[in-house]
Amino acid sequence: MNPTIDPAAFRQAMRRLAGGVGLITVGTGDDRTGLTATSVTSLSADPPRLLVCINRSASAWPILKEYGAFGVNLLDANQQDLADRFAGKSGEKGAARFAGARWKSLVTGAPLLNGALAAIDCTIEEIIERHSHAIVIGRIEAVELGDWSDPLLYWSGVYRTTRDLPAVPLVRVG
Ligand SMILES: Cc1cc2nc3c(=O)[nH]c(=O)nc-3n(C[C@H](O)[C@H](O)[C@H](O)COP(=O)(O)O)c2cc1C
What residue segments make up the domains of the chain, in order of their start? Predict the structure, then answer.
């Protein structure tokens, strides 16, 4: 390890990596909780797997492990209020984070957001606990595509969307 690397400098560098914003949702009923995450990454298409990096101090972490399943809900540009809520910005915890939106479940029972850009239902294939976080590999059990819409992005500490980039031609693939 290079002891001269300042974690603050690394954080500054990572703020320059633009990310799509998702909600990781876990539990059922009063046990429901979740967190906002930009660390959602496709791992492989065949077999369908994704990964997400979760801070092991997050309130959702023990529930995720207990249920062995989670939802990944990719947000559109009109869903910033949900991103704030699931990041704990206004202090809501647990099931209170789900208020004011409609939810359903598909295969695993994990909550999935009606109206998400895409909702992905996962069981846990593997957990790799490393440093403050856990790398959680999700086996895709179901996928639901919402209406086509501008994604919610997070870059340099601010929510943005592709609507902020009028000069960039948006090409829809698929
Ligand atoms: C835009 C954004 C992206 C985030 N991405 C992640 C992430 O990938 N992994 C993670 O563990 N926390 C991430 N967080 C932080 C969690 O959302 C936040 O710590 C959590 O919801 C609050 O924890 P609590 O449930 O213990 O209150 C992110 C926060 C924001 C605002």
Answer: 21-163
Our mutation pick for probing the ligand 1 site, out of 55, 70, 81, 129, counting the most ligand atoms within 8 A of Cβ, is: 55
* Ligand 1, pocket residues at CB < 6 Å: 21, 35-39, 53-55, 58-60, 86-88, 154
Residues in the chain: 174
Confidence class of residue 2 from pLDDT cuts 50, 70 and 90?
confident
**Amino acid (one-letter) located at 105:** S
How much is the pLDDT for 106? 98
Please say if the pLDDT value at position 170 is more than 90: no
Q: How far is the CA of 167 from the centre of ligand 1 (A)?
A: 31
Q: What CATH code is assigned to 21-163?
A: 2.30.110.10
**How far apart are alpha carbons 29 and 25 in whole angstroms?**
12
Structure tokens at 134: 């856990």
**How large is the C-alpha radius of gyration of the chain?**
16
Provide CB contacts within 8 A for 167, sequence distance 6+: none
